[in-house]
Amino acid sequence: MAEGRSTSGRSSPTIKTLAAHTGYSIATISKALRGSPVVTDATREAILSAARELGYQANARGMALRTGKTYQAAVLMPITSAAGYEWDGVEYTQILSGISQALDGSDYQLAVHGYRSFDDACAVARRIAGQRLADGLIFSGVLADDERIAMLVEADFPFVSLGRCRQPLVYAHVDVDNEWASHAATARLIAGGHRRIGLINAAPRLSYALDRIDGFCRAFREAGLEPSLDLVKGGDLTARFGRDSTLALFKGSVPPTALVCVNEATTLGVLSALGSIGLRVGEDVDVIAYDDINVSAYFNPPVTTFYQPIELLGRRLGEFLLLRMAGEDPAGLREVFRPEMIGRQPDDLGGRLSRRRPTLES
Amino acid sequence: MAEGRSTSGRSSPTIKTLAAHTGYSIATISKALRGSPVVTDATREAILSAARELGYQANARGMALRTGKTYQAAVLMPITSAAGYEWDGVEYTQILSGISQALDGSDYQLAVHGYRSFDDACAVARRIAGQRLADGLIFSGVLADDERIAMLVEADFPFVSLGRCRQPLVYAHVDVDNEWASHAATARLIAGGHRRIGLINAAPRLSYALDRIDGFCRAFREAGLEPSLDLVKGGDLTARFGRDSTLALFKGSVPPTALVCVNEATTLGVLSALGSIGLRVGEDVDVIAYDDINVSAYFNPPVTTFYQPIELLGRRLGEFLLLRMAGEDPAGLREVFRPEMIGRQPDDLGGRLSRRRPTLES
DNA sequence: TTTCAAAATAAAAACGTTTTTATTTTCCTT
DNA sequence: AAGGAAAATAAAAACGTTTTTATTTTGAAA
Where in this chain does the record put each HTH lacI-type domain (chains A, B) (predicted)? Predict the structure, then answer.
């Protein structure tokens, strides 16, 4: 099997090379490089100088074996299962980018572990913790009763989740206040006169989908109204799901006058569907989207969005994981963000009720 | 520093545990597990059985130190530099997904190395090869004279590039036939009567941007025409760039009647710009897009696209890297794909030349 | 039956670091 | 000046595997 050694013909300097060069022992050199106080300042300076001069870099494999640490920060990432399954998980690029920035300058590398289903995600998480394939783990797609969180808390294995479960556990996490955002979007539409509001949501087993429904309902109840739960659709975060859901909602006898969309992908599908049945946003129907990559800035017609830059979440995930792997209390590593509303439409009925509304006949 | 050992209270079984359990020596056990022919079948079976029974998993760190291998497959991924820099590199999720699928079942983990600029990408590649941070490398964003390729070929360090440079080197790569695709798109528009064709392209230092221009020009020349090179714009692959370029092109005295777009992100921006200046695709202007995540299926109005599922490219990248790390000749690890055209518009002038064309006054 | 060679297994070394234990040096007190 | 304790450095062990070298066992031939 090919060995890709550098072309200089000699291996990189090791701690033995440094020992031969300086006259100090391997143990002293190791302690000096680690900043141990049992080494004098003069000795430390001499060793650091020699290390710089020789271009010494500690070998990660030697360190890993002795310390038992992997120096890997693992991230679970969904494997999209079929070509053409467009835009599934595209926000992961920015999550990984944020995490990568947080890890920059640390000893840690970013290791991506793909999974195909939620059960597979649990199995991968179990294997990472059990076999010590990484020193810490980041994952998303949190369920209300996510067993990964229970398992990792019990194993005392460092992790940070993007999202929160609904179990009374203390663990590091970063999240968006989905209940608040859903409430704000829904309240805006109710204040604009809407009563038949559709919610294009994530799959209801996902914790934040439940949070979205809670916020949706709270807005109605605060207005003394019954929530239009018959107009709630839950599915995957694809443009196709957005489109199919929209077409289904507008086939009904009393279709929505407004839609709240879970993300930018479903929104694209929603807009595509509305266009195909001749409904104009801002005139025939109002659309509010949640967007974490700000791509809805380019949607035509423009839509009001609740925008949360996901790369910031990614950076915070990485920062928290480093702290958690360094032994910090997870109770101090929890943060929930509120997205910023970008109003691009008035989102109100604007005298529309008197006009005849086209519906899709079945 | 917290040690996340499993809660069973005992460490995972090591080869020493297996030795104590079976009565065989560590060396015999290692050879048996590796499939060495110097061990008898009976001995091997007994050892494999005991390994299964005890749930033995070889420790990657012990293996790594002794063999000198990292069991890491590195991928260079751009770090998006600012929040709001939307949709930059979103296709990486599907590339990583494809690579992850290819690596599944192998001993290799996917390690993501972020970079901020091309020079940073070169520095990271140099460090990965020089310090043996990984056993192989995958990267994209190939330049015509990409120094990463030259350096890694000289170092004989296993890698696969997504894209080709223009140097006479032999190395593993996966690519799309950009010259062919650009030619096909442009030829289609020329056949439809277009003469003023805009090319919303990638930055011209990128190898495939040059390939696109080559194909663009070849289509004109084959039709006995001069290419409309004044309508070629090169920049980053963002919706913003697509929009800004389009607005600039339509400010000109003789604006384009058709646009060829480098990817789905710039196309979104292009459509947004056209909508904002009142131009209708299929009527006032024709748009052909290159798309590797098939999201343009949801664009409204629909546009003709050249579609190449990028996850397939990702899988092939992973497959080739495993083969390359196993010592396979890079000359046998090269593949170029041709995207599939999905016609959603006739893309011809259709009697439009007689109509007055709105232009943007400066 | 004995001897020798091949096969099979075991012992030891190695990878490169960190940590533990041992030894040497230095400084202060009597 | 000598002795003892603290500081500083060195030697050895350890991590868990693979590989090299050594030893034992087995089988075949004389």
Answer: 13-67
